Amino acid sequence: MKTKPIPVPLSPDELTRFLGLVPTESDPTDCWEWMGTRSQSGYGVFFIRGRSYMAHRVMHSIFIGELEDGDFVLHACDNPACVNLFHIRKGTAKDNTADAQAWRTGERRSRW
Ligand SMILES: [Zn+2]
Predict the structure, then answer these.
(1) Can you tell me the distance from the alpha carbon of 98 to that of 96, in angstroms, rounded to the nearest whole number?
(2) CATH entry, 12-105, from 3.20.20.70, 3.90.75.20, 3.40.640.10, 2.70.98.10
């Protein structure tokens, strides 16, 4: 699956708008639930220059590191709307599937 590269660095205005949708006042260990638009599958959506991007991928690109084509950003908390820096990590499509399966079967109960 081809993934859209996030156009980082964002402009100061875009960055301000992005951070305005992140509940940073919440406890750092809690999920930071995206306050903007959500996709049908529950992921946060952020619009940059008229295009939509997944908020947790934008978060990763800005604060953790840029994503290569094919990189997935996985949630430790299984909460698609969460953009907490400490709950997301980069992985492959295979990791993503393994993760989803583990959650479904109940093997994954704890965070990393
Ligand atoms: Zn979370």
Answers:
(1) 6
(2) 3.90.75.20
